[in-house]
Recover the amino acids of this structure.
């Protein structure tokens, strides 16, 4: 059973518009959430994160929103640029056993059209 | 600049071969991880290690083993490669909450 779900496998957005990527989770023990970006044939790179004590974190064009009661987070990219085209993974973190673990969603392929 | 290096970008192996995937990090992180990425399934944790010679199973450890003899190096071993292990393998290391990934190894088992 997937604890972190990204229900949209793909999303297309026009350049300059807003991209909204969504993520849902089921484990209430998750206390830290991250977004990673992945280009083909490269490893994922960290984009932005949010602690469960906050509901918003902003970094330039990227903003992450967390709704704990709904167990939902979203990544907003404004304005979207063609270079943002990549797979975006949502990840959630909690302690499990001896170390803090990251659980990833299945990813959303974002395509920004020029 | 942080760095996680995987020894190969692309590998082609035959069914039944023993396969070693190597990963080295230069950040002195305690925690290291091996994931595989498959379409529609995201990144799934195979094994992780929180210290030298320590290892724990992730979500999909079957068919794999790992070795952590030195802090900077974490190896993933496919004891007898099978075609369903064709995948992108990603190594990561972490201190705190953010994980740093290697560039990935695309393994094809024929």
């Amino acid at each position: 059973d997937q604890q972190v779900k990204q229900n949209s496998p793909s999303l297309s957005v026009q350049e300059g518009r807003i991209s909204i990527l969504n993520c849902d989770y089921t484990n209430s023990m998750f206390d830290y959430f991250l977004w990673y970006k992945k280009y083909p044939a490269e490893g994922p790179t960290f984009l932005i994160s949010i602690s469960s004590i906050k509901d918003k974190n902003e970094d330039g064009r990227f903003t992450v929103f967390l709704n704990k009661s709904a167990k939902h987070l979203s990544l907003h990219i404004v304005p979207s640029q063609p270079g943002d085209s990549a797979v975006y993974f949502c990840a959630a973190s909690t302690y499990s056993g001896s170390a803090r673990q990251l659980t990833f969603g299945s990813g959303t392929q974002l395509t920004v059209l020029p | 600049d942080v760095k996680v290096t995987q020894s190969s970008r692309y590998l082609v192996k035959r069914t039944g071969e023993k396969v070693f995937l190597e990963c080295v990090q230069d950040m002195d992180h305690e925690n290291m991880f091996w994931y595989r990425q498959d379409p529609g399934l995201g990144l799934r944790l195979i094994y992780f290690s929180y210290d030298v010679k320590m290892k724990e199973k992730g979500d999909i450890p079957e068919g794999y083993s790992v070795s952590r003899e030195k802090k900077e190096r974490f190896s993933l071993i496919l004891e007898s490669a099978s075609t369903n292990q064709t995948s992108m393998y990603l190594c990561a290391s972490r201190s705190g909450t953010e994980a740093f990934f290697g560039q990935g190894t695309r393994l094809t088992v024929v």
Q: What stands out?
A: The longest strand of chain A covers residues 86-96. The domain at 4-113 of chain A is CATH 2.60.40.10 (Immunoglobulin-like). The two ends of chain A are 37 Å apart (CA to CA). Chain A has a mean pLDDT of 93.
